[in-house]
## 1
Amino acid sequence: MVHRSLGLLGLMLMVALVSGCGLFAAGPGRTVEKFLYALEAGKIEEAKSYCSSELLDDYGRKLTQQFATVPANIQARGGIKATEVVEEQIVGDLAQVVVRVRFGDGGEEVLAQSMIKENGAWKLAAGK
């Protein structure tokens, strides 16, 4: 029994160490999806946490104002029913992501987003 408990403890420790190394960190496409769902839920501060420091420095107050109008627009379209990462191109610490968003009203939009890796996490970047 003690041997089995030590094995389980070792497995849990290994998972904790590997996840701390970023192996299970969200990729750029998943980050865009999390950003969209945060906006849909009206979680403005969470949505801003997915933005790069440069984007926040350049447009912080304006982003907050713009993000505040998004939840109502999404709800007017029946909410987000599904997202799909259509394309994800990663070159070093930069990425380009294309995401298809399907709404409850049957409509869809395809969004292209530039991404940058900051401190090991993918963040939305200003398009260049």
## 2
Amino acid sequence: MKTLTKLALTLIAVAGLQACDPYEDENKGTPSVTNVIATDGGAAFEGTNTGTSWTVATTSGTVVFVKANPGKLLDGASIQVTPEDCTPAGGWLSVNGAGPGNWMSCYYPQSPASFEGASVVLYPGPSISATESWFNLTELAAGIFNLKGTVSDKQGHPLDIDVNVLVNDFAAAQSDTAGTEITVDFSDAGDNMTDVQLWEAPDNSGAPGNWTAVATTSPYVKTGVTVGATWWYKVSADTNGFPTTAASFETEPVSVTTEPPAP
């Protein structure tokens, strides 16, 4: 997880974005996905890839940025139906094996850094024309979302998008004044999500030690904690069908160090 220093996004109308051409020397080669970022405008969670398939886990977020290779401009008409309407053009986007439903896809050509290309921005509706900012939208619901389809660049080359997003409203914190109790809240159910499991590990020199499965329902409360001790937590989940090749997803670990009462 990181803050949005790299994105530095100032959100403006899509129609204005469509008019921008941010690259003096456009990359006219084959397009590819170089990063996937889920964000709510503050914290950003970066994805990892296996081949052309990407996975990102987020505890909160409103949009998913699928970023193309440096200098690459995409064909906005292959992404959204009009410059003012982010409905997926031609229904190109599938969500968990079905149509796009209420999911939108916007073209975001401008990037604040020369080493980044354009983005396809995915999120549940309404279209951006109905709100001031992507980050004013409702947060993504808990679940696992397989977002898949093909758009194209300005030269007509196809760009395959295959992104898996794990959304879990996961938070851990000290929950008493004595410093002997930790409470963990997490999403124990969600769309296309099954076998949700909370894991716990003692601290081992600033990193998680051996993980132990501790709960399948939220909240989880750990009592009898030694004051000043650090414990780590993460959530894992399996898909309920999409993508069919993925076995399991998990959040980034978070740690809690308990503190004694103030004197």
## 3
Amino acid sequence: MTPGSLVLYKGSPGEEVWEQPYYIKKAGNHMSEFEREWNRWMERHIQVRKGERKQRLLNELGHGEMKFLREIWFPVRRSLDRLHPEYEVKDHQGKPRFLDFAYVSEHVKVGFDVQGYGPHGRDVSRWRFADERKRTAFLLGMGWHLCPFAYDDLEGELDQCRFLLQLVMGRFLGTPSPLDKGVWREKEVLRYFMNHPDPARAKDIADAFSVSAQTARRILLQLRNKQWIEPANASGDKRRIHAYVIHPAAVKFVL
């Protein structure tokens, strides 16, 4: 199939499955917001991958992974941006380690796995059990935050899974909403900086958090006085500061 064709994802219950790559196809234009986002996201990742990494993407996304995206991730985050499927990390021995999904930004790396009881519990060999422990230790040592989900919970505990995902991602990214006073407000704005690599202006903060431009400028001034953000202009001209970037020390405060 050519890029842009609409084909169903592997393992879609009760629907026709076409050849790879997997896109969602429906009659007419009756596609949901998620289905349009999935097609855009999947096409982008297929186009940039080659060889074994591309084949793994096409072969390994099954029903559990799709359910995680459709029923858990997308209702919480409303976007698949920055989320990478079948993400490869080479360990200290050069062995490829794969995460079902990885959320990667300049400051945060969060890995997600959908794990069935059989292959990860009941039927696991001693070698596989030990190897998974080494995988976990290596990823943690490399700065990854890991968030596994049980396949059975994706079938029967959707609300709890969404809550847990929001809890995990809210720690790093937050959710734009009207701001209250205090430390929580400062952390939410710093999370905004962490999730947006480009310098942020007062207008960006005002738009993201539904506050006035004056309030946004006051928040940025408070953060600058605490040395949690710094001017984006490298010239050092303090008279005209239009945008800021997060200071590395602020990341520890947020996390």
